[in-house]
Every structure is written in structure tokens, then in C-alpha cells.
Design goal:
Length: 169
Amino acid sequence: MMNKIDLRLFFTEEEWEKICDHCGICCLYKIEDYDTGEYIYTRIACPFLDIEKGNCISYLDRFHKMPTCAKISAETLEIAHIWMPRHCAYRCLYERRPLPPWHPLFTQGNEQSNAQLLSKITALVTAENDIEMCSKEKILSIRKSAIQMNPGKKIEKQLVANVIKDIKI
Ligand code: SF4
Ligand code: SF4
């Protein structure tokens, strides 16, 4: 862990939710390479991901409907940051890096409340953002070209056939 600040105590519940940019990339299935520990993203999306908007269509009920859905909290980030996309604001904050410049907090919504949240975020950041991150356009094209998991087919076969090879997410 980068430092002792508990991100969940540092942010209000509402602020924590606003940190997500709804890219939806974390809701794509991934394959773990046991030899390298690396996570490889696939184009297979969770059945509850709205591929067009990037939202979960069962957000309040997601852990019941999808038992493998991962809760993102300060505690779970200890492990989840390894497989979350590099641009994800939660991973950025866990690693104390700045958010990507296209994050909606910089571009959308209530400017005053965004400014308060952004000043908290700035207080956490201590590292350069020197990790190569996807552009917003690339993320949108990945999400919109994703296909929903087919429960009638073997999930392993679907995953292996749909590995995203050309980009580091
Ligand atoms: S990858 Fe991060 S920013 Fe994108 S939807 Fe998931 S939690 Fe939100
Ligand atoms: S159930 Fe979980 S993994 Fe599936 S779309 Fe909703 S938040 Fe994403």
C-alpha cells in the first residue's frame, strides 16, 4: 500500500462513487496468466454491462445478480488495482497518480462540487502519471465493440477467442 490514508474514510460515499468514470472496462472478463501474474483483457462483457453507456444495469443489486462482481473499496483495491485498467481513477489514486486528463470530473457536472473533490484528489497524488494509459476514444471503441457473455457457451472458450491483443489496458 502506498500510504496509510484510508481512501474510503478520506472520501464521502458520494465522492467515492463520483470517482468512477463509468468506462465499463473493469466489467470486461479477464484472463490471468499464471506464469507472469499479468491480466489480459477480453472483449467479453458481463451480461449486466450496458455496453453503450458503460453503466451497470443492476448496480444496486449487482453482488446478488453477479457473484463474481468485485466491490471496489479501499480494502479490495489492495488486490484489485493489479487487474484494474491503468486509466481507472481508483487505480490511479491507489497508486497516487493523477487521473487521466479526460476524466469527467475535469469536464462535466457541478463545477463547485467537482472542484472540492478534485482538490482532495490532488492532495493524494504524489507520483507522476508515467504509466501508458488508453485514450478516451480507445476505451469507447473497446467497450462498444465488446460482446456480451453467452451463458449457453463455455466461458473459457469465449474468453480465449476474444483476448484483446493489440493494446495495454
Ligand atoms: S475501470 Fe474504474 S473507472 Fe472504469 S468503470 Fe471500472 S471502476 Fe469505474
Ligand atoms: S454486475 Fe458487476 S461486473 Fe457486471 S456490469 Fe455490473 S458492476 Fe460490472
